[in-house]
Fold this protein.
Amino acid sequence: MSLTSKLADIRDRLGPWTAHNIEIAPGLFTISPGAPDRAQQRAALYSNLCKTFLRRDLFNRTFIRMRVLDLGCLEGGIGLTFGLKGANVVGVDIRKGHLEKAEFAAKALGITNRCKWILGDVTHGGLWEQLGKFDLVICSGLLYHLDAADLIPLLRRMSRACKSSGFTLIDTNIAPEPKSYYEINDQLRLWGCHWKEHDPQKTYQERLVSGWSSFHNNQAFWLTERSLINAIVASGYEKVFKPLYPYHEWGHQTRDVWIALPGKDNILKLPLRLDPDPRPWAHPALE
Ligand SMILES: C[S@@+](CC[C@H](N)C(=O)[O-])C[C@H]1O[C@@H](n2cnc3c(N)ncnc32)[C@H](O)[C@@H]1O
C-alpha cells in the first residue's frame, strides 16, 4: 500500500487530523499543504528556547540523545519535530487514536526507533513510574483541561521527571480574573475560574471524539497567572520565566508559555503571593 493510501485509510478509520499538519513525505501532509499548524510554530519556539536553557541547537542536530516528554501529545506533531532532529521522544495521550496517528507519522518519517507513544492519563501516578527523567518536559495545551485537584499533583510529577539540568515548558491558558478558588492548604489557595469540558451525561464515545478535551473530568480549572506561578513553585520548581522574544502569539492575551526550572520547592524563600492580586492594572494616578 502506498503512503498516500495508508494516510487515506487512517483518515477513514480514525477521522481527519485536527491540529498537527505533519509533512510525512515531500509534499504529503497529514492535513493538507499550507494548512495552518500552530504546533509547528510552537515547536520552533520550544526548540529555540532549548538553545537558551539547554544550550542545544535544533539546527545543528545537537538534540541527539536529548530526552523529551510530550504530555497530551495529540497527533504527535510537537514531539516529532524534536524526534526528527535526533531527540528521543515519549508522547503520552489519553486517546488511542491520536497515538496511532503519531506512530503512523513517525513510521513514515523513519524515526520510530526514537519515538515512544504511551496511552495513559497524566493524572494517574502509575503512568509516571515507567517514564524516567527528561531534559525537556512539554506540557502544552493540557493544564487547562484538568480540574483543580489534579494540578499540583501533575506539576509535582512533572518536576520529578525533569532532570536537574533540564527544563519544563508550560504552554497554557490562564484565567483572566480570579472568580473562585481551590484550597490546597492554609498556605496555598489557587485562584482562577471554571471551564466546562463535557456535559456529565456524555458517553464514552462522545468523549473520545472531543479529541482536544479532557476525558474523565467534566470541568477544568484555569489558574490566574499568579496562582499558576504559585502552583509551579510549590511543586518542586525553583525558578519560573516567561519568554517574550522569541514568542508565539495566540489570538487572545491569556495564553502563553512559562518556563520552569526544577529545584527545591521555593528554594529562594520568597513569600508566595496568596491573594488573588488586588493591585490595579495601571498606575492609579495615570489619567
Ligand atoms: C488541546 S490538545 C493539545 C495537544 C498538543 N499538546 C498541542 O499543544 O498541540 C490536548 C490533548 O491532551 C490530551 N489529554 C487530555 N486530558 C488528558 C489526560 N488526563 N492525560 C493524557 N492526555 C490527556 C487530549 O487527548 C489531547 O490530545
Residues 19, 39, 72-74, 78, 92-95, 98, 121-123, 140-142, 145, 212, 214-215 surround S-adenosylmethionine (CB under 6 Å). The chain has one domain: 3-262. The first strand starts at residue 23 and ends at 25. Residues 100 and 213 are 18 Å apart (CA to CA).
